[in-house]
């Protein structure tokens, strides 16, 4: 087999490749050795904590990575099966750099690695991943498969942290005093099937909560026999939506493959916008900070450029400060640390918490929604209606030959509509609108993919008709139909 070219699958934020053509035990060893030298030793950490998801290749790959780490005199703590936020918990609680073997929501033939520094601080292309990639490529190209001869091999230990993770989350959100809720959870045969029984049930020996969990696809199976573990695709939510209605449930929760993202379904079987969840959780976190003695004006919440316009509005209504950032977890995490933000949300259903080392955890966001629902008697649809103010298109991808030229055409069109612009992340055009029914508020964001010849369009407006008009006009321009 030819030597894989790591630049083909070491992405901006993580590693994501085909097994075994791209990601195999030799590559995992080289990446472990490079991570040990570039990040772990340079940071002065004594070792690495390593976890993995339920994909068939994950145990072997994670052990090969550990071999690369220990060959360079550093220790490896293997925590076995875990969600990505379980790995972040381990990195924070043990104060160690971490490696999580997962391809998240990607199909079964993929695997990958998410890397972090001690305290769950992100490792991306601009914060060490490029150097790790280049050194690992050098090790592969030269056939190096052993550590320095003058360095004693590090130790490998195994540790189960699932119970500690569950207890830590329970300590952040108290669900014990709410009304009884029936909750349907679709784990998609991913790691939610491992973590939900521990956190929301009694699987880790914690006290019973006033929750009746109806499980869907809790069997860990990295071949995804029922549907892909990607709840961002509407097709993958249909079983959950039907089950919520069938069981008369109060709420439905869908986790992706590594359970770091959580999508919410209301009692009618309708999806709740991740932006509405961002606004709901932000309101709770702001209130908690104020109750603890903080001035609301000193509380920061981070959101990205494709979040609903309702998010900064609601943050401002609470007297707090909204901080807008680019799409992507490294940008969100970096901005949260700079601002000491209490919470951050992305429209992709990643939710970040200062109390969780500024890392993302879908489980903690789900617990906030359950707590908010359980603290009052209204159904979820009515509770979240206050946080869902505008009509959104969702993200729509278009294949283009010249992203810059297509974007320029859209900018010219939007300027003729009286829009204002910013380029924090792609092109954002905002039309303030008036009270005239034919001139309502809208905004759009057009971003080029970093890895594919795609333009990603998001449109939001004061009403459905305006959103659809702007969406259709812009798509026609982007796709050369207008």
UniProtKB/TrEMBL annotation:
InterPro entries registered for this protein in UniProt: A-D-PHexomutase_a/b/a-I, A-D-PHexomutase_a/b/a-I/II/III, A-D-PHexomutase_a/b/a-II, A-D-PHexomutase_a/b/a-III, A-D-PHexomutase_C, A-D-PHexomutase_C_sf, Alpha-D-phosphohexomutase_SF
Signal peptide range in chain numbering: none
Keywords assigned: Isomerase, Magnesium, Metal-binding, Phosphoprotein
Residue ranges annotated for the Alpha-D-phosphohexomutase C-terminal domain, each copy included: 395-476
Needed co-factor(s): Mg(2+)
Domain Alpha-D-phosphohexomutase alpha/beta/alpha: 11-127, 165-269, 286-390
Pfam family, one: PGM_PMM_III
NCBIfam families referenced in this protein's UniProt entry, alphabetically: PRK09542.1
PANTHER family in alphabetical order: PHOSPHOMANNOMUTASE
Membership in a protein family: Belongs to the phosphohexose mutase family.
Annotated protein name in UniProt: Phosphomannomutase/phosphoglucomutase
Originating species: Pedococcus aerophilus
């Amino acid at each position: 087999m030819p030597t894989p070219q790591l630049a083909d699958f070491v992405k901006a934020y993580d590693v994501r490749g085909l097994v075994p053509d791209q990601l195999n035990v030799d590559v995992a060893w080289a990446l472990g050795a490079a991570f040990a030298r570039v990040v772990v030793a340079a940071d002065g950490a004594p070792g690495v904590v390593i976890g993995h998801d339920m994909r068939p290749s994950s145990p072997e790959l994670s052990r090969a990575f550990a071999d690369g780490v220990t060959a360079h005199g550093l220790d490896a703590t293997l925590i076995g099966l875990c969600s990505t936020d379980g790995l972040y918990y381990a990195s924070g609680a043990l104060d160690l750099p971490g490696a999580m073997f997962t391809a998240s929501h990607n199909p079964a033939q993929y695997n990958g690695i998410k890397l972090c520094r001690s305290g769950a601080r992100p490792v991306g292309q601009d914060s060490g991943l490029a150097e790790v990639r280049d050194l690992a490529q050098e090790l592969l190209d030269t056939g190096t498969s052993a550590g320095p001869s003058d360095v004693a091999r590090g130790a490998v230990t195994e540790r189960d942290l699932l119970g500690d993770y569950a207890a830590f989350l329970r300590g952040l959100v108290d669900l014990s005093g709410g009304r009884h809720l029936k909750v349907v959870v679709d784990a998609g045969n991913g790691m939610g099937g491992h973590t939900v029984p521990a956190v929301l049930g009694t699987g880790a020996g914690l006290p019973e909560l006033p929750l009746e969990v109806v499980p869907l696809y809790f069997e860990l199976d990295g071949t995804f026999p029922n549907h892909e573990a990607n709840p961002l695709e509407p097709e993958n939510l249909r079983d959950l939506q039907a089950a919520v209605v069938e069981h008369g449930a109060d709420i439905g929760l869908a986790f992706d493959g590594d359970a770091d993202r959580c999508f919410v379904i209301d009692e009618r079987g309708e999806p709740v916008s991740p932006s509405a969840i961002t606004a709901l959780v932000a309101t709770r976190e702001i209130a908690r900070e104020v109750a603890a003695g903080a001035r609301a004006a000193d509380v920061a919440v981070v959101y990205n450029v494709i979040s609903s316009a309702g998010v900064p509005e609601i943050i401002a209504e609470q007297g707090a400060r909204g901080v807008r950032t680019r799409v992507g977890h490294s940008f969100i995490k970096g901005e949260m640390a700079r601002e000491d933000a209490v919470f951050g949300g992305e429209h992709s259903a990643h939710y970040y918490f200062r109390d969780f080392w500024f890392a993302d955890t879908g489980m903690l966001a789900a617990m906030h929604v359950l707590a908010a629902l359980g603290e009052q008697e209204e159904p979820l649809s009515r509770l979240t209606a206050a946080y869902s103010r505008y009509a959104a298109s969702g993200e729509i991808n278009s294949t283009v030959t010249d992203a810059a030229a297509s974007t320029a055409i859209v900018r010219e069109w939007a300027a003729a509509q009286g829009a204002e612009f910013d380029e924090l992340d792609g092109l954002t055009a905002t039309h303030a609108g008036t009270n005239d029914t034919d001139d309502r508020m809208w905004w759009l964001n057009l971003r080029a993919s970093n890895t594919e010849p795609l333009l990603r369009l998001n449109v939001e407006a004061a009403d459905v008709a305006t959103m659809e008009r702007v969406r259709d006009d812009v798509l026609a321009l982007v796709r050369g139909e207008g």
